[in-house]
Design brief:
Layout (H helix, E strand, L loop, with lengths): L2 H9 L11 H9 L9 E5 L4 H14 L4 E4 L11 E3 L2 E2 L2 H21 L6 H15 L4 E5 L16 E4 L13 H8 L8 E4 L4 H13 L3 E4 L5 E8 L2 E7 L4 E7 L4 H18 L5 H9 L8 E4 L3 E4 L5 H14 L5 E5 L7 H8 L5 E5 L9 H10 L4 E4 L2 H11 L5 E5 L2 H11 L3
Parallel strand pairs: 1-5, 1-6, 2-5, 6-7, 7-8, 13-17, 14-15, 14-17, 15-16
Antiparallel strand pairs: 2-3, 3-4, 9-10, 10-11, 12-13
Helix pairs in contact: 1-4, 2-4, 2-5, 3-8, 3-9, 4-5, 6-7, 10-11
Length: 427
């Protein structure tokens, strides 16, 4: 089996809905003799910030000499981006070989279930298997959606990390408490938990779960925090008061206060896993090398082009704050495409005031919302807006209109970011 054959088989499993059921992934894992239990795991969930937190935790562990696997989602350009070990993505040949190994198990489980093993379940199982085959000394798994019913939730979860919980996917609930209940489902009996600051309704759920499962909770501002933060060229410097030590003179090449606080949670997660303070030089080196594609990512200058996957109100608010703090511009050109099931008004509310002109578009996802709904919102505020059939066309128009001192921001979805990256070529 080659990579294209594996990819075609995988693409045939794309699900149109969330199936809250672990039976298929559990059956796969059992048939494979539970490879996900052969290495320690850090398991990361939350509404925003989980990808960056997972990336930082993996970088830290690798810098401390631990062979570390990382599983994230979604990908931007290639599915191989989702599965990596110490910064190196799984190769196409490795992907194909592992998929060929996995396929008989997939077919067996398909035959036993009314529902076919899904796209995400298949990728999760492949990550379980590849990490065991490497083998890795640690794996960091980012939850795909929610927690309780997510395919990643078969890991041991030696450390569960909960980034801020908010409203996003309607399938997870209509209140903070309902969403938090789903996300707190990754907390395992007797294990450790690291939580960013939470809305009180979410914190109540998390604390109750920790109490019920005798899990040791480390909470931001009670047990750890970022104590100092300064803007720096290309990112920010900061100090973290952790569980076992204080880490100073840290540099993170990402923007926004939330990025440093996610990094602090990752530091504490690795501290808790190892049971001792981290080596300061390795920690500094790891943080300075962190990249988080599609998260306040600068891909061009004069004009500056930024890509950000903000796809819910809290993500858009964080993006707006980071922009105002870290950048200056003459005009801001907002290229935006949003999925149909998202809170469009909530996303636009913090971003629209910053935009001098908007370029409303559809992205290539089948879930993309109608660009006309975006245009109507800007027109109602008497802001100039143009409508395009694609992100690529919108981006072309923005680049043609932008002056060197302007900013072009492409946002609204990671699908929008992916379209923009393809249109720009490799940034």
């Amino acid at each position: 089996m080659n990579f294209q054959e594996a990819l075609a088989e995988l693409e045939g499993r794309k699900e149109g809905r969330m199936i809250p059921d672990l039976s298929r992934i559990s059956a796969l894992a059992t048939l494979m003799d539970d490879p996900q239990l052969t290495y320690p795991t850090i398991h990361v969930t939350g509404t925003n910030g989980k990808t960056t937190t997972a990336r930082v935790a993996a970088e830290l562990a690798c810098a401390h000499g631990i062979s570390t696997g990382l599983f994230t989602s979604p990908h931007l350009l290639s599915v191989t981006e989702r599965i990596s070990a110490c910064g190196k993505d799984i190769s196409m040949s490795e992907f194909a070989g592992e998929y060929e190994h996995l396929l008989p198990f997939l077919m067996h489980v398909d035959g036993q279930s009314e529902d076919q093993v899904t796209y995400f379940e298949t990728l999760t199982a492949l990550a379980y298997l590849w990490f065991a085959d490497k083998p890795v000394g640690l794996a960091v798994f980012e939850v795909g959606m929610g927690g309780t019913w997510d395919a990643t939730n078969l890991v041991a979860g030696d450390v569960a990390v909960l980034c801020p919980v908010g409203l996003d996917h309607p399938e997870l609930g209509s209140t903070i408490a309902e969403v938090a209940t789903e996300k707190a489902g990754i907390i395992k009996p007797g294990k450790a938990v690291v939580s960013r600051e939470q809305h009180q309704d979410a914190l109540d759920i998390i604390q109750a779960r920790c109490s019920e499962y005798d899990a040791d909770l480390k909470l931001e501002f009670r047990d750890f925090e970022v104590t100092e933060r300064l803007l720096a060229v290309g990112g920010q410097s900061f100090v973290v008061a952790g569980i076992h030590a204080t880490y100073d003179d840290l540099f993170l090449p990402l923007y926004g206060e939330y990025a440093t606080r996610n990094a602090a949670a990752a530091i504490v997660a690795v501290e808790v896993l190892l049971g001792h303070e981290l080596e300061i030089d390795a920690t500094r080196e790891a943080l300075a090398s962190v990249r988080s594609p599609g998260r306040m990512e600068m891909v061009a200058r004069e004009p500056t082009i930024l890509l950000d996957g903000a796809h819910n109100p809290s993500g858009a608010e964080a993006l707006s704050a980071a922009l105002r703090e870290s950048f200056r511009w003459e005009r801001l050109h907002l290229v935006i495409a949003v999925s149909a099931n998202k809170d469009l008004n909530g996303i636009l509310e913090p971003l629209a005031p910053l935009a001098d002109i908007a370029y409303a578009a559809r992205n290539e996802s089948e879930r993309s919302g109608d660009a006309s709904a975006i245009a109507e919102r800007f027109s109602a505020e008497n802001k100039p807006v143009e409508v395009f059939d694609s992100v690529a066309a919108a981006l072309d128009a923005a680049r043609a209109a932008a002056a060197p001192g302007d900013i072009i921001l492409a946002t609204g979805s990671l699908y929008t970011v992916a379209d923009a990256r393809r249109a720009l070529g490799e940034p």
